[in-house]
Amino acid sequence: MISVGLIGYGSWGPNLARNIDALDDAHVTAVCDIGPARLAEAASHYETVDAFPDYRAVLQGPSDAVIIATPARTHFGIAREALAAGKHVLVEKPMALTAADAEALVEEAERAERVLMVGHLLEYHPAVERLRELIGTGTLGRVLFIYGRRVNLGRVRSDENALWCLGPHDVSVAGYLLDGAPTQAWAVGGSFLRDDIEDVVFMAVRYSGGVLLHSHFSWLDPGKVRAITVVGDRAMAVFDDGEPVDKLRVFERCVELPRAVGDPPRYHDQGARTVSLPDTEPLRRECQHFIDCIQTGARPRSDGHDGLRVVRVLEAAQQSLRDQGRPVAVAG
């Protein structure tokens, strides 16, 4: 039985605690939050856990692992201390706010011989796993481009912009789906609600092999959309997480260019079909994967290297954002 300490019991922490405690081979033994009301709520839900206002008390305790669900600016410091304390670590996205800090966490985890996993939740979504299968089997043909929308009215952030808040989702999914490495990123956006905090960002990333990712992130939008589209030269697929049931659809549509000069393009449309998916909560799968990796020593799907790649893309996009959309090379 793996004992887990949860650091951060805000909007996401209760979901993590619920899913860890539902596993057969793990349980929450300690919870930390700086808010007295949230800490009292955690203690009332999990009567056997130790509740602390200081995360260092969790690190000094007997838990085998910690999950860090605190504001993004604190991820690096807490994760580094946790690894140094000998804990296995699951840290929410982004794992750090600079590539240098993310790389330091990867090195510390390897030195300590501890699991370092990043909460790239969508990599554990059944729809994304099926998308990867559709690409791998050639159902979509050669992937040409991917585009995503992650927009809503709220929740307005004061400690991170829309790029760092929402960008890790699309970038991690693209990295999971594609073989190529990101080579270049550019972004434009606007700060309409708070000075110097972009509440709308349009980001593009170029991958080796020519695949393009384009994403729209905002918390200043009339409707909630959480969708990603993959366009191949044989077919296209749409993963719409806002749909209650039919979340993944494949469109048997493509364009065939003429072989002879002067001939018109041929448009193929054989309709759309829904892809069946297992009814499992992605966060439950993510938590189980973390525990499995601790027990078996396996490398997590969204390990520190995966988190580092995502931060490198976001760092390049942030630099482009500062430079009014100038393309910036992605390190690595």
Blueprint (SSEs and pairs):
Layout (H helix, E strand, L loop, with lengths): L1 E6 L5 H9 L4 E7 L3 H10 L4 E3 L2 H6 L4 E4 L3 H13 L3 E5 L6 H14 L3 E4 L6 H11 L6 E11 L8 H16 L4 E9 L9 E8 L4 E7 L1 E13 L3 E5 L7 E9 L9 E9 L7 H15 L7 H19 L5 E2 L3
Parallel strand pairs: 1-2, 1-4, 2-3, 4-5, 5-6, 7-10
Antiparallel strand pairs: 7-11, 8-9, 8-15, 9-10, 11-12, 12-13, 13-14
Helix pairs in contact: 1-8, 4-5, 5-9, 7-9
SSE string: EHEHEHEHEHEHEHEEEEEEEHHE
Low-confidence segments, ≥5 residues, pLDDT <50?
Answer: none
- N- to C-terminal distance: 38 Å
Percent range for helical residues?
25-40%
**Any idea of the CATH topology of the largest domain?**
Dihydrodipicolinate Reductase, domain 2
Total DSSP helices: 9
Give me the secondary-structure category.
Answer: alpha/beta
Compute the gyration radius: what is it? 21 Å
According to CATH, what is the class of the largest domain? Answer: Alpha Beta
Outline: globular
The second-level CATH architecture of the largest domain is 2-Layer Sandwich
Count of discrete structural domains: 2
Strand content: 25-35%
CATH level-4 homologous superfamily of the largest domain:
Dihydrodipicolinate Reductase, domain 2
Mean pLDDT comes to 96
